[in-house]
Amino acid sequence: MLIIFEPDTIGNDSDYTNSEKYGPANGRFNYYLSRDDNSKIRTSYFDTKIFQNDTYKKTLSTGETYISDVYKSPVNDKDLFYTWAVPIKTSNRVIGVICLEVNVNSINDSLSQINPFEGSTITLFDNVGTIAYDSDKAIYISKTLDEIYPYYKEHDVFNKIIRGENLLFENFSGTLQKFYTYSFTPVEISKGKYWGLKITAPNDVILKDSDIIRNIMFIISALIVVISAIIVPLIIKRKVTKLIGYTARDITRISNGDISFHISNDFLKLNDEWGDIARGLENTLKNLGNVVSTVKNSAEQVSTAANEVLVGNNDLSQRTETQASNLEETAASMNEMASAIKESAEGVSQSTSMVMDVKECVNKAGLIIEDSVNKMDAVYESSSKIMDITKLIEGIAFQTNILALNASVEAARAGDQGRGFAVVASEVRNLAQNTQESVKNITSLITDSNNKIKLAANSVQESQTIFNEILEKMDNVSSIMDKINTASQEQERGIDQVNTAIDNMDSSVQKNAALVSEATSASESLLSEAKDLIKAIEYFKLKS
């Protein structure tokens, strides 16, 4: 089985262009299932030549189920196969194809069980006339009808079959020197597409039973006429009376179905007409015994053949049921896969929503950090201005201290008159020194504060850079999650189409099962008729 999707149906072919499985197809999805010699399932990718195959291209172009012509296996150039292709659709658009390769031998095993008449043959050919099965001559397989049976053109066999018409005709075989009946039946394998099934049987076999019954009636009628013609002229004779008794007794036994006895030796030894009658009756008994024995053997062979056909049909029915069961299991697995993909899609959708929420929070945090940076820059600027003011105050205090010192010197020169002024100058000097010392402390604190603010601002700027990187990565994650979400939805739709294709295949298997059931009923009917014929033949008592 092969599943192929059109390019970029799932949406991420480019991610698999270098993969081992999908690389040869440029990342295009294709999946191939097959059975090895041990009937184990193996998977692989398929040769890209399939993309140019008529089966794939016609299914894509028509959007309908397509069954290919019969073709030889590319592996051993011996086995015959045909491909059953079903389109995968979404919104009335074909997005891929699922193909099933069927070995014609799987049909041949069933056809070989069919043998409605002794010496009958069966031939199966496809819609272009290629022979897929021939029970008489296997060398005809893979050749065409026109090549092997050119005289079929006289009856327009092929054209009638592809039109879905039945055909029946009689033809004389120069090789076997007997007449054969040819029956052709169309088998519809897809809408408007027919294969042909041919059954041939010799006319003498088909008409054997009716010929036997007719000959028996002729023999009995002839006996009655002969006996009547001979015994009437001799009725007056005593000897004739005795011979008539013998004859009546023997004919009565024959009419009762008893052909197991012999004519009396006394009767057979006669050298006159009566002896001829006796010997004629003896030969009649012998021939009738041979005929009845042959009919009985033929009926038993028909019964055996019908039973074999019935067994074959029952086996085919079981295999059809097994195939239907396998399809149901496949459908169940696909449903489980679809459910898992749906859950994954829902999880991806929730993850996408959560990523968007986180992205929004990161955006808000980035704005807060940016605002903090701006405010810290403002604080740093204000601190710088305060430092300028404190330096100005420090300068004023220094100048005041100089002025107080000068005042003290002048007061000392003034003597007692400047003593009070000296005290004031001393206090002003002390105050100026204290102010200058305090300003130095304030300047030191502001300088330390500015350094710390600068470090904090650098840290906040680094945090802002990190948040910007996180935001960029969140954008990438969000984009990837969107792609995964889209791919999951496409996968879900693709699985739905595969399920639809499997349902169509299951419907076809069910139809095949119905046909097998009809064939089984026909086999049972044939078996019943054969048993009735055997029962009728058992009316005659044969020589042991």
TrEMBL record:
The keyword Transmembrane helix applies. One of its GO terms (molecular function) is transmembrane signaling receptor activity. It is found in: Membrane. SUPFAM superfamilies: Methyl-accepting chemotaxis protein (MCP) signaling domain, Sensory domain-like. This is Putative methyl-accepting protein. Keywords: Chemotaxis, Membrane, Transducer, Transmembrane, Transmembrane helix. It comes from the Bacteria. Gene3D superfamilies: Methyl-accepting chemotaxis protein, PAS domain. The keyword Nucleotidyltransferase does not apply. One of its GO terms (cellular component) is membrane. It holds the Pfam family MCP-like_PDC_1. Residues 298-527 form the Methyl-accepting transducer domain. Its main location: membrane. The chain crosses the membrane at residues 216-236. Belongs to the methyl-accepting chemotaxis (MCP) protein family. GO terms for biological process: chemotaxis; signal transduction.
